[in-house]
What we know:
The protein is mainly α. The chain contains 4 helices and no strands.
Amino acid sequence: MATIAVAWLLGxxxxxxxxxxxxHDRPFAAGFGPALxxxxxxxxxxxxxxxxxxxxxxxxxxKGKWSLSAVLTAFGFVLAxxxxxxxxxxxxxxxxxxxxAIGSAAFADLTFRTIANVMRRA
Length: 122
């Protein structure tokens, strides 16, 4: 559970950095078409909803919990498609969400494994 929390926090920090330094208009704000749901015209990349789901899926995969990871990964794909369909995200936003989720989960997992190894040696 701590790995999920740290991975999510890392993902959230990366999202905040993207919001501050890599602004990317949402499709409706860029004039691509109307949004089918109400949403603020703020930065679109990466999707915080999809990143959150895929962070958990990636952590479960790294822990060998393949069935949970598969279910959450599939749910993330459905969620990603839905957010693209309603016009509030671009496909690239979802690719970035996957990169952020996997990177955050891998970093958190490596950190906790390193701490566990150091504690074992002490």
